[in-house]
Specification:
The complex is a heterodimer of chains A (120) and B (137). By secondary structure, chain A is of the alpha+beta class. Chain A contains four helices and three strands; from the N terminus they run E-H-H-E-E-H-H. The chains are: A alpha+beta (120), B alpha+beta (137).
Chain lengths: 120, 137
């Protein structure tokens, strides 16, 4: 799952009112959203007994702090598609990572707004 | 509360002409079992709700249910037919006694894919995710 805050920053840069320092202040907000999402995903996987899955869930901050990736790494245990989407016999056993990502992105929005608002 | 929302979601999809099972193929919403589920059908997976209250402004407890709807069909045409009906959930109001329950637009959707683990009975499968936001009426 990707989160991309670059458009927000680009908007601010286009306005010419927010300085370069805003990027440095956005970075921890992105990192916090990613870390919270990782914790949520690990909790969901652990709660239903997929003990091998939580350890495979990681996050990376990318794009100099304006974006990131979170989720199970390639080569993790078993078929994660089966856990997240099920098959014709058994339904999904874990909520799709997008749910946790959206929830944490929503939580982060006021902080993005605060950083940008202080720069304007 | 969870069961009421599961039942309402299943009723909505049922009205769209989609056979719905819960958690496992063959298990109906009322707990009864179909011995031989016949394609196409959908399988609902419900996560426990995330509860939220904002006491500062007096908002009553709001529940968010993350739902994955996996659908399975015997061929592509059937698969797309069911996919279209599942997508009708986006923006729908569900009938849940004592609650105002709205299905938000799809959180994700996977492409229809072929599962040919059993070459004699290939299955075309897809999945869509929705968040149901529910507040006391």
């Amino acid at each position: 799952v990707d989160i991309d805050a670059s458009q927000v920053s680009r908007l601010a840069a286009d306005l010419g009112k927010v300085g370069f320092t805003a990027v440095a202040r956005i970075r921890p907000v992105v990192a916090k959203a990613l870390a919270d999402t990782k914790a949520d995903l690990q909790g969901e996987a652990g709660a239903v007994g997929h003990y091998g899955v939580p350890g495979s869930i990681t996050y990376d901050v990318t794009m100099s702090g304006l974006g990131g990736e979170v989720g199970p790494v390639t080569g993790g245990p078993g078929s994660l598609a089966f856990f997240y989407y099920g098959n014709s016999k058994v339904g999904a056993q874990l909520p799709d990572p997008m749910f946790a990502m959206r929830r944490n992105a929503d939580k982060a929005l006021p902080f993005f707004a605060k950083v940008l608002g202080e720069g304007l | 509360v969870i069961r009421a929302h599961v039942a309402a979601l299943a009723a909505f999809l049922g009205a769209q002409g989609v056979k719905v099972y819960v958690a496992t193929a063959g298990i109906n919403v009322d707990g009864s079992r179909d011995a031989s589920p016949t394609l196409p059908y959908a399988i609902l997976s419900f996560a426990a709700p995330v509860l939220d209250s904002d006491y500062a402004v007096g908002t009553r407890e709001r529940a968010e249910f993350d739902v994955t709807v996996g659908y399975h069909a015997a061929d592509y045409r059937q698969g797309f037919y069911v996919a279209e009906r599942v997508m009708a959930l986006a923006g729908a109001r569900l009938s849940v006694a004592g609650h105002v329950a709205t299905v938000e637009s799809a959180g994700f959707a996977t492409p229809l894919r072929l599962d040919d683990d059993n070459p004699l009975a290939p299955v075309y499968s897809g999945a869509s995710g929705f968040t149901i936001t529910s507040t006391p009426a």
